[in-house]
Amino acid sequence: TMKNPVPQAASLLLEKLMLLVHVRPLLAGSGGEAAPPAPGYYDTSCFKRGDLLEVPRTLFIHFGIYLGENRVAHLMPDILPAFTADRRHIQQVVTNKRLILGVVARTASVRVDTVEDFAYGGSILVNHMDRLFEHQVLGSEEAARRAEKLVGATAYSLLWNNCEHFVTYCRYGAPVSLQTDKFCETVKMIIRDQRSVLASVLVGLASIVCLGLAPSTTLPTIFIPFFLWMAG
């Protein structure tokens, strides 16, 4: 049976748009790798094992599950697991270059880092998402155990398997990404607004120019199915 090209084309374009949004801020600051805060920078006495930690960034949010003893399990794009299984190298702090290449290659790992390495100087919100999933919160120990079982190399997708999918599966039992859903809804609104059709096309063209498509992929095969899917 032939696969329906509409969801595939839409997914491809949305992935590239999200990649553009996520990677640009990193590229802007990739001239040098800043060191994470020194140990003890964060007061971990208020964290409990199984807590969902949330670190707001400029254009996105990073998530992790607290395991206790200043350790956080979190999913990060990383190209290195595709080339080596040596934990000594993989466990080193993920640089911007490793992260960007991991996003492009769709490879990642669920890793355990200190709170300082996880948050990298950002402010931390604790269980901020519980208010949205108040009837689905699993036990703290169950959330931590789920996170520990998933430690290791994994596939990565901005749309289907990112750090938010990881923590919501661990703490609430189902992998969802609210920021991905919000992004997709915003794109749909732009497409459906007839006054913004030209802007939508320009955004799509910008993503192609900045991120590139396979030489065999033509503009109609991407945009026509994408528009039909968005209108549905």
Automatic annotation (TrEMBL):
GO MF: phosphatidylcholine-retinol O-acyltransferase activity
InterPro entries: LRAT, LRAT_dom
Entries under PROSITE patterns matching the protein: LRAT (PS51934)
Superkingdom in the source lineage: Eukaryota
Swiss-Prot/TrEMBL catalytic activity: 1,2-dihexadecanoyl-sn-glycero-3-phosphocholine + all-trans-retinol = all-trans-retinyl hexadecanoate + 2-hexadecanoyl-sn-glycero-3-phosphocholine; 1,2-dioctanoyl-sn-glycero-3-phosphocholine + all-trans-retinol--[retinol-binding protein] = 2-octanoyl-sn-glycero-3-phosphocholine + all-trans-retinyl octanoate + apo--[retinol-binding protein]; 1,2-diheptanoyl-sn-glycero-3-phosphocholine + all-trans-retinol--[retinol-binding protein] = all-trans-retinyl heptanoate + 2-heptanoyl-sn-glycero-3-phosphocholine + apo--[retinol-binding protein]; 1,2-didodecanoyl-sn-glycero-3-phosphocholine + all-trans-retinol--[retinol-binding protein] = 2-dodecanoyl-sn-glycero-3-phosphocholine + all-trans-retinyl dodecanoate + apo--[retinol-binding protein]
Active site, UniProt feature: 163
Entry's EC annotation: 2.3.1.135
GO biological process: one example: vitamin A metabolic process
Compartments where located: Cytoplasm, Perinuclear region; Endoplasmic reticulum membrane; Late endosome; Rough endoplasmic reticulum
Domain LRAT: 52-179
Residue ranges of the TM segments: 197-230
Keyword Acyltransferase (UniProt): yes
Listed pathway(s): Cofactor metabolism; retinol metabolism
Major subcellular location class: cytoplasm
One GO cellular component term noted in the UniProt record for this chain: endoplasmic reticulum membrane
Residues annotated as signal peptide: 1-28
Entry keyword annotation includes Methyltransferase: no
Enzyme category, top tier: transferase
Its biological purpose: Transfers the acyl group from the sn-1 position of phosphatidylcholine to all-trans retinol, producing all-trans retinyl esters. Retinyl esters are storage forms of vitamin A. LRAT plays a critical role in vision. It provides the all-trans retinyl ester substrates for the isomerohydrolase which processes the esters into 11-cis-retinol in the retinal pigment epithelium; due to a membrane-associated alcohol dehydrogenase, 11 cis-retinol is oxidized and converted into 11-cis-retinaldehyde which is the chromophore for rhodopsin and the cone photopigments.
Assigned protein family: Belongs to the H-rev107 family.
Name of the protein this chain belongs to: Lecithin retinol acyltransferase
Taxonomic source organism: Xiphorhynchus elegans (elegant woodcreeper)
Lineage, highest ranks first: Eukaryota, Metazoa, Chordata, Craniata, Vertebrata
Gene behind the chain: Lrat
